[in-house]
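Sample entry (315 residues):
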Amino acid sequence: LGLSFIEKRVLATLLRAPKNLDFACLLLKKSTPLWSSQEQDFLIPKMGLKRPILPLAKEFWQHKVGKIDETRGQLKVALYPGCLVDKVFPEVGFNMLKVLRYLGVGIFYPGVSLCCGLPLLTCGNVDGFKKVVLENLKYYQQVSFDYLLTPCASCTYTLSSLWKIYAPDLSLEDREVLTEISSKTLDIGVFLHQHLDKKDFKKDREENLYTYHDPCHLRKSLKVYVEPRSILKSLTNFVEMEASEECCGFAGSFNLKYYELSQKIGLKKVQNILNTKAKAVATSCPACMYQLKLLLKDKPVEVVHLVDVVAQNIG
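Predicted structure, serialized as tokens:
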């Protein structure tokens, strides 16, 4: 992405420890009135940037729920919400808890939300990426669990695949922990597809016309696309959009560095969504949700996470 040395250092500092990113987000919330004429305008005069952003949550998900260590049933899952669910879309995190408790599985969450490290890796900071990986291992080796579930396609791909590739020179003990966590990492939609008994769910098909946007890391990297559609077809009146597998244009820091191109790509996706006449578009990645919510803010289409659809249909 051609990030400058200063930009790389700032990114590494923010992501290497949960408290750093939390502090920066808190500062952002407090200072918004100083540099923005509107709540959802992001204006930095010196950089000449003006673009809409979604407001941060009034209270981050991690602070609301704290540490969770619940034992029930035969399965225990660890939750990995990701940065955007924690700080922008906490309702997705609450709906994860609702659905998993409904299924009767044990839940572990360490009480802090960490970055998976992908933003560092994509700008070439492999050393910073390894430090973030080690920070994650420290929190997720506290208890034994059967699966590590995440609602973020990028986190799922990073934990299950990239951790093993780009952090091979850890100590033997850390490599064993990393390998175990990576092997247990699963997209929450795949887990729900495997464990939901859909006959217990409400099916208001006539009113609920939904379409689905495939996150790039879920479909292209992990080859997951059947499972979310199976869930939506069971719970809603589902309609497929044209080019559902094409990128929404957000792509993390790509949106920051190449904003106009990001919007151009996103508007193609928006038109495909509108062409379906769906009342809502579901996806499995909060980054995609972020992009689509901004682009569809003046349109009669709701943007939701797959787990939100499941949660609202629990009987």
